[in-house]
Amino acid sequence: AFYITGGSTVSLEDVTLNNNQAEGRGGAIYADRNSQVSITSSTPGTKISSISSNRTIENSTSRGGAAVWITHGGTTLNITDAVIENNRSADEGGAIFLQGASTANLTNVDLTGNESQNGGGAIFLESDQSTVNLKTVTISGNAARVSAGGGIFTNGTVTANNVVIEGNKTGYDLDTGQVASGTNDRVGGGIFIQGAESSFVGTNVVIANNET
Known about the structure:
The protein is an all-beta fold. It has strands at about 1-5, 10-15, 15-20, 20, 30, 35-40, 50, 55, 70, 75-85, 90, 95-100, 105-110, 115, 125, 130-140, 145, 150-155, 155-165, 170, 170-175, 180, 190-195, 200-210. The strands form five sheets. Strands 2, 3, 6, 7, 10, 13, 16, 19 and 24 form a nine-stranded parallel β-sheet that branches. It has a seven-stranded parallel β-sheet with strand order 1-5-9-12-15-18-23, with no helix packed on it. A four-stranded parallel β-sheet has the order 11-14-17-20, with no helix packed on it.
């Protein structure tokens, strides 16, 4: 739907990004090279924007971030008052994939029912320079089919304030409702944290009923 590059700034209000598909990265939004992307609501506190049922497909070696892929130094994603649901990634990051020195700030957002083939059913941080800041966010009912991090897979920095991470799974196929075949590292049903440079800092965080 959107390919954003070269330091561009894109601001979207009350947006619906549904049923988009990419043979590669970012089914709904791909942003790189110091670009800035903001999604907001015209009624603060009300989740109007929807990013749902977007896909990346298998005809590519880089096919993560079914809803959003952000990459390269300085690229920033800001999402406020939105629902991100039922997206499907053929690799990592069922909803959002961050690569390199990129940052995502999510406020009053629900990430529900997203699925990745590999790590990070909802969110995947590829680099120790990647950062996600979560405030009043619910991450629930997401799955990583054959790898780790049913909710979040991070090699970078995650800060969480007033966040619920609940009912996420690894080694599970949401579409069939069954254990996925070919499961590998079925660990971190809620969160998988990898590497010496990774960190998760939480305040008022509920992590419950996640499964591996």
